[in-house]
Amino acid sequence: MLHSLPNCSLSLIDFRFEWQRQEELRVDSVESFPIRVRRKERLVAASFAYPDYQAVLVRVACDGVAGWGEAMTRSGPKITALLVEEYLGPIIVGKKFDSPDSVWHAIWRELRVRGHTRGVEVEGLSGIEIAVQDAYARLRGSPVSNLLGRRRASEVPAYAGSLFTSS
After folding, report:
1. pTM of the entire structure?
2. Average pLDDT value over all residues in the chain
3. CA dihedral angle for residue 68, residue 88, residue 120, residue 73, rounded to 10 degrees
4. What pLDDT digit, counting tens, does each position of 18-43 carry?
5. Is 99 in contact with 26 (CB distance < 8 Å)?
6. Helices 100-113 and 120-140: crossing angle, nearest 10°?
7. Measured between alpha carbons, how far is 80 from 70 in angstroms, rounded to an integer?
8. How far is CA 105 from CA 3, 40, 48, 125, 128, in A?
9. I need a labelling partner for 11 at 20 to 30 A (CA). Which of 2, 32, 77, 113 fits?
10. pLDDT tens digit string along 37-80?
């Protein structure tokens, strides 16, 4: 999602999301599953090394349909998983939203008020956001790319922050 990206070349004014024309969605539940996979070779970056792949799989049910997201974590998957289920999830469970984007904003408001706009909290938020987008797309019987305004693309720009590897 595009949330306060500096120097963004897309005009958000011209971006028409399919979900803007849809009805509300209700978040039924948020679950998290910490995973840790041993690598054959350590991932070495400029200032750190990762011997394992660590992430949290996030499952969000909206109107009875489950969506899945992934939150990469540097501080340990169990910490992020607990944060997702005990802090971030309760912010949205049982509530109705007019779009997947409004789910992100509801959580972000709570984080910002408490000064938690970096680190593990935002890593957890990313997993929830991806899962909500997935659930919403499944409810509509549409690929996530359609909901984000893209029907087909021959190229997709990519970005990876702070992952300067040696290979």
Report:
1. 0.75
2. 79
3. -20
4. 444 456 889 999 999 999 888 787 77
5. no
6. 160
7. 11
8. 9, 39, 32, 10, 12
9. 113
10. 887 877 777 767 777 888 999 999 999 999 999 998 877 899 99
High-pLDDT (> 70) share of the chain, %: 77
104: burial class by Cβ within 10 Å (0-12, 13-18, 19+)? buried
14-23, 77-86, 91-100, 155-164: least confidently modelled range: 14-23
Structure tokens at 140: 């509509």
Give which of 81, 72, 58 is closest to 131, Cα–Cα. Answer: 58
Q: Which two tokens stand for residue 99?
A: 């779009």
Q: Tokens in use for 8? A: 């963004």
The span from the CA of 152 to the CA of 146, in Å, is 8
Domains of the chain: 21-147 (3.30.390.10)
E strands in 9-163: 25-44, 49-62, 65-72, 96-97
- In residues, how long is the chain? 167
Cα separation, 148 vs 40, whole angstroms = 36
